[in-house]
């Protein structure tokens, strides 16, 4: 059993989660502070969560293909995206970002606004309010979003196979390896990868639940 799909999956999911973590929190904070156009911004960020992953992958293919403006610009620097590991990371980021964004925004909106108003009356800058008040008080929701976005990136299939392909050792993740094994009528291999994917996802979700339960008892 070749282990490269496991390695590619973990590398892709970890890289995507790092990007998703910071961008999701930043977008949640920015949208929560918007006075106009909040609904539109929220809909655009959340859209990949409700679209079929193949549609997301198709639009990524159009956006980064050789004929697109972005693709032509990147080719000037000999940077290829489509059917590379970078494409797998981008696909994972796009489909998992809405989970991090929605969870972080929900955590921010549940905070007592009087705390923030009191901090502003004391002359505390918005930057310090964000780092010292919002983030510490929203950490449980942010952690939940982190785990959900990571597990979503672990199991990403549709956008990945459309945009990054299924290249062994490069872009073949456990999800696409399952697909390839089924296509080759190798159900034993598909079952092993499926079990592996389920176990990884289950471990992370259980770890989040145990951590949350432990924190709740301390409080």
Overview of the molecule:
The protein has 219 residues and is an all-alpha fold. The protein has one domain (4-218): MetI-like (MetI-like fold), CATH 1.10.3720.10. The protein contains eleven helices and no strands. The protein has helices at residues 4-33, 38-50, 53-64, 69-75, 85-109, 113-121, 126-137, 139-154, 158-163, 174-183, 187-218. Helix 1 crosses helix 10 and helix 8 (139-154) packs antiparallel against helix 11. The termini are far apart.
- CATH secondary-structure class: Mainly Alpha
Mean pLDDT: 89
What's the tally of helices?
11
The portion of residues forming beta strands comes to: under 5%
Content-based structural category: mainly alpha
CATH H-tier superfamily: MetI-like
| Largest sheet data | none
Poorly predicted parts: none
Number of DSSP E strands = 0
Task: Annotate the secondary structure layout.
Elements: H1 4-33, H2 38-50, H3 53-64, H4 69-75, H5 85-109, H6 113-121, H7 126-137, H8 139-154, H9 158-163, H10 174-183, H11 187-218
Helix pairs in contact: 1-5, 1-8, 1-10, 2-5, 5-8, 6-7, 8-11, 10-11
Question: Which features characterize this protein?
Answer:
globular; 219 residues; MetI-like fold; 11 helices; mainly alpha
Please summarize what this structure is.
The protein has 219 residues and is mainly alpha-helical.
């Amino acid at each position: 059993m070749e282990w490269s799909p496991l390695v590619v999956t973990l590398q892709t999911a970890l890289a995507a989660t790092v990007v998703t973590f910071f961008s999701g929190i930043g977008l949640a904070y920015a949208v929560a502070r918007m006075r106009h156009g909040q609904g539109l911004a929220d809909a655009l960020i959340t859209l990949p969560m409700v679209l079929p992953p193949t549609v997301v992958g198709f639009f990524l293919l159009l956006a980064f293909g050789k004929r697109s403006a972005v693709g032509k610009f990147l080719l000037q620097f000999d940077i290829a995206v489509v059917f590379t590991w970078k494409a797998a990371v981008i696909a994972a980021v796009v489909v998992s970002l809405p989970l991090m964004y929605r969870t972080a925004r929900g955590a921010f909106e549940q905070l007592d606004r009087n705390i923030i108003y009191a901090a502003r009356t004391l002359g505390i800058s918005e930057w310090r309010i964000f780092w010292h008040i919002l983030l510490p008080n929203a950490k449980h929701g942010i952690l939940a979003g982190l785990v959900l976005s990571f597990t979503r990136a672990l199991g990403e299939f549709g956008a990945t196979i459309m945009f990054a392909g299924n290249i062994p050792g490069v872009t073949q993740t456990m999800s696409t390896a399952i697909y390839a094994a089924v296509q080759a009528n190798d159900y034993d291999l598909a079952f092993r990868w499926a079990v592996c994917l389920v176990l990884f996802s289950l471990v992370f979700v259980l770890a989040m639940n145990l951590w949350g339960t432990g924190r709740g008892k301390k409080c």
